[in-house]
Amino acid sequence: MNDKNRIFLFDTTLRDGEQSPGVSLNVEEKLEIAQQLARLGVDVIEAGFPIASPGDFQAVKTIAQTVKGPIIAGLARANRADIERAWEALKYAENPRIHTFLATSDIHLKYKLQKTRSEMLAQAVDAVKYARQFCPDVEFSAEDATRSDLDFLAEVVAAVISAGATVVNLPDTVGYTVPEEFEKFMRTIIERIPNNEQVIFSVHCHDDLGLAVANSLSGLRAGARQVECTVNGIGERAGNASLEEIIMALYTKHAFFQKEVNIKYNEIYKTSRMVSNLTGMLIQSNKAIVGNNAFAHESGIHQDGVLKERTTYEIMSPELVGVHKNNLVLGKHSGRHAFKERLLELGYELSEAELQKAFALFKDLADKKKEISDDDIEALLKDQGRSVPEKFTLEYLHISSGTNMIPTATVRLSIDKMPFEAAATGSGPMEAACHAVDKITDIYGRLLEYKLHAVTGGKDALGEVLSKVEIGEKIYNGRGLSTDIIEASVKSYVHAINKYYYEKQHENGS
Ligand SMILES: CC(=O)SCCNC(=O)CCNC(=O)[C@H](O)C(C)(C)COP(=O)(O)OP(=O)(O)OC[C@H]1O[C@@H](n2cnc3c(N)ncnc32)[C@H](O)[C@@H]1OP(=O)(O)O
Ligand SMILES: CC(C)C(=O)C(=O)O
Ligand SMILES: [Mg+2]
């Protein structure tokens, strides 16, 4: 805590990241991500907002009970019920933190909270004091800080510190600031607070103007020691500051920033893929650090330069962030040794049973596809590592479709190893197949959205389908993989149905 240049990484993928429209993670998925965040080495995991729903409460509680190492934080509005609920979930953690917040800007006070500044101040102080009765580590966030009156904000910050806040976060809630302005803003507030070294100042920037990472870095230059961010920059509206971009900016420009983080860099890529896979939010190809093109060189002059000396066009090495480039070609004639070796290089240590299963899937794919790339292997592993047990498994699919005919699908699912078959029609082949699945499972989903992308290039590319399926009042993300795009689509639908079924079983306590 004494090293002024040590930056604490506060990951809020599971809270603010989950606020991305259409994203909803179940307890198992949140736990899987939290465990990976711990392997990556973040300092704080904001696991959720416990009062928001029973599922979020359970997720925070499970993470608090299970994940060791990082501080586990939970969000609470500035009221006693939220704080009590947050503590109920967090109290199991090795290092718990209650994170309470209240807006300081006049626009939020007047229209949203309908409170005066003095009422806000009293409520913030009361919330922090109350939270401190339960937990020694309490963070206070002044929501919409960057649009707040500076004098009033400084008064609130001083008051919550006196009330016992250990971390004070000044969010750019609506992504309204720009780097120079934000640096000056942070410096001004920090300088105005007596004994400002007793508390950790934090930044939390949103990306409405595409400046979240730049603003966060400026905040760190001004003296903030905690930075709040999400994997792949997911989050409310245009998202939050991206964790991987902040980490790599601090690393690559170390001479400039002179800040230290305690991170396992080679876990970055894997973390990014896991979050994309479980949230259903695809990563754009040109996304910095983790996009498919981030280390690709297309044009001749660049390729020539890189072949002569990598650093002509690469400011960091792909291997550092866990992206492995490998010349060993894997295909249908490859054996277990080469396959296992590649898995280790990609950062996957599988048990013998998992390895056997993955190898069988690999051979299956190799029969359909000439060359198996690292992306194919990762896709297979993600497919295998599905977060819920498969009650329903797609066994057989036959589609009859064409111009001037009604698309018809025949589907066979196995349920507890017993085959069940149904046929149905629809306005397209996917709808027909979904209807057939619904008939078998007696679960009726509504496909809201589905995105198909080729995991690799070529006619024999593996297609990955990420779908959002509404069942009851909730939306479930499904994922399916196949060289056949209709099969991948139906698999993603069945995956979402499996998630729904698993959740229902848990709710019923069976
Ligand atoms: C900037 C951010 O990211 S803040 C975090 C945003 N995240 C979320 O909202 C996700 C989870 N939220 C939820 O599940 C729900 O909104 C809940 C459970 C928290 C509250 O649900 P409801 O009780 O139905 O209230 P609703 O969401 O409609 O309105 C919010 C209420 O909280 C109040 N409120 C908002 N912020 C705060 C705060 N920091 N402290 C205290 N009260 C607050 C609002 O003024 C409003 O109060 P009112 O009902 O007296 O008008
Ligand atoms: C709750 C706070 C920290 C927040 O997410 C924001 O202001 O953006
Ligand atoms: Mg936010």
Automatic annotation (TrEMBL):
Keywords: Amino-acid biosynthesis, Branched-chain amino acid biosynthesis, Cytoplasm, Leucine biosynthesis, Manganese, Metal-binding, Transferase. It comes from the Bacteria. Pathway: Amino-acid biosynthesis; L-leucine biosynthesis; L-leucine from 3-methyl-2-oxobutanoate: step 1/4. GO terms for biological process: L-leucine biosynthetic process. Gene3D superfamilies: 1.10.238.260, 3.30.160.270, Aldolase class I. Homodimer. This is 2-isopropylmalate synthase. It comes from Syntrophomonas zehnderi OL-4.
